[in-house]
Amino acid sequence: MAFTGKALYDNLTAYAEDVGDLVEVNAVWMSPVLNALGTNGRRATSVYHEWLEDRIIFETVISSTAITSIAAGGTSYFQPSFSGLQMQVGDVIRNGAEYMQVSAVTANSIAVTRGFGSSSTTSLAAGGTIQLVSNAALEGFDVTVDVSTARSRKNNYVQIIQKPIIVSGSAQAMGTVGGIGDEVSYQKNKRVQDCLRDLERAVTMGISTSTTGSSTVYRTMKGLWNFITTVNSAVVANSFTASPDTYLNATIRSAWDNGGRDLDLVIAGPTFKNTLSTLNSSRVQTTNTEGTYRNLVTYYESDFGRLEIVMTPFLPSSSLLVVNKSRCKVTPFRSFGYGEVAKTGDSYKGMVMGEYTMEVHHEETMAKLYV
Predict the structure, then answer these.
(1) Nearest by Cα to 40 from 367, 327, 336, 352
(2) b/e string for 93-130 if b means 16 or more Cβ within 10 A?
């Protein structure tokens, strides 16, 4: 969906001239990340923007305590890395070749029956991973517990992006070289382009001042780069150049292992994007009747999904982000519009301005790779 900068029910006439047509036309080539993500259909209602985030269904459990090898049928206890109340009595879990069944649950302790299904028992070091196999319930079992968890509140701040325009009366009246004609309209289009660049920078690399701002304190939003912290890997530049497929696939896999089963977009800096495009160099087929040589990769398809690849100049050149478009929402508070300023003297004054923030849902299921 193309980036328009507007929520579904914005009413710009109350404060500014709508420049949505200029935004949509320019976003296609000025701001590839904005164009890939589109606009959140729901607008922010406060400069301190909040949203709710539900838990992701877990498939693995990190045991904070060691599990020793004991005889089958015995009972062991381990401390999960999250609230144990998300698990149920009867759940079947697996540690390597050993299957275990949950027999009791508290917030900080899980009791399991060892060697379930006549499997061989084994040990697990603290910090090891246990896989959930499935839930199993007894016939006629009654509902006695609730495994839902409280949703968590996430937040970001709304950032004002503004570009001024001042055109003298003479400049507006004068016929200009190059067929520009209306100087105010020309400058309005240029300022829209400037605002789109600034918004793309903020969406990708923005850092929050964690304040609602004042007449002397600027209010800024957090961008994708600073949201994505859980799956956060560094790579040696020469290693990525030698094997970009290996590192990209491993990065996607890391996010996939954390629950990111809907990843559909890679945002790359120029160096990493150019390196990824070399994956196509050995697969180019041309004839001597063609006048175009292609060395470009716009999609990456692997066992973990099909992901669009876009390049932006505003990420560090040797870096990339792996995200899901629908969970990264560019959210308007006031969409871009042009407002005239009270006339003082012989000049036309105005500004292109908008206020936006960024919603990122479940950053732990997305990934960042950089040199």
Answers:
(1) 327
(2) bebeebbbbbbebeeeebbbbbbbeebebeebeeebeb
Q: Which residue has the tokens 């968590």?
A: 152
In whole angstroms, what is the distance from residue 335 CA to residue 289 CA?
Answer: 48
Flag whether pLDDT at 290 surpasses 90.
Answer: no
In DSSP terms, which residues pair with 153 in a beta bridge? 52
From 265, 276, 266, select the one nearest 240 (Cα to Cα): 276
Q: Return all residues near 238 (Cβ < 8 A) that are at least 6 apart.
A: none
CA distance between the termini of the chain: 31
Least Cα distance to 324 among 259, 273, 275 occurs for 259
CA-CA distances (angstroms) from residue 6 to 21, 42, 61, 158, 338?
11, 9, 41, 15, 14
Beta bridge partners of 290: none
How is residue 266 written in tokens? 């890679």
How long, in residues, is the chain? 371
Q: What digits encode the pLDDT tens for the residues 314-363?
A: 999 999 999 999 999 999 999 999 999 888 899 999 999 999 999 999 99
Of 64, 67, 112, nearest to 90 by C-alpha is 112
DSSP state of 179: S
Pick the closest to residue 354 from 31, 1, 7, 2 (CA basis): 7
Domains of the chain: 12-54+154-285+293-370 (3.90.1690), 60-134 (2.40.33.10)
In angstroms, the Cα distances linking 239 to 4, 224, 248, 272 are 39, 25, 12, 12
pLDDT 10s digits, 127-158: 899 999 999 999 998 888 777 778 899 999 99
Tokens of 240: 């990525």
Is 80 exceeded by the pLDDT of residue 28?
Answer: no
> What's the CA dihedral at 245, 325, 315, 161 to 10 degrees?
170
In terms of Cα–Cα distance, which of 228, 195, 208 is closest to 334?
Answer: 195
Q: Quote the longest CA-to-CA distance of the chain.
A: 93
Distance from C-alpha of 181 to C-alpha of 158, rounded to nearest angstrom: 36
Q: Which amino acid would we find at residue 158?
A: V
The pLDDT of residue 344 is: 84
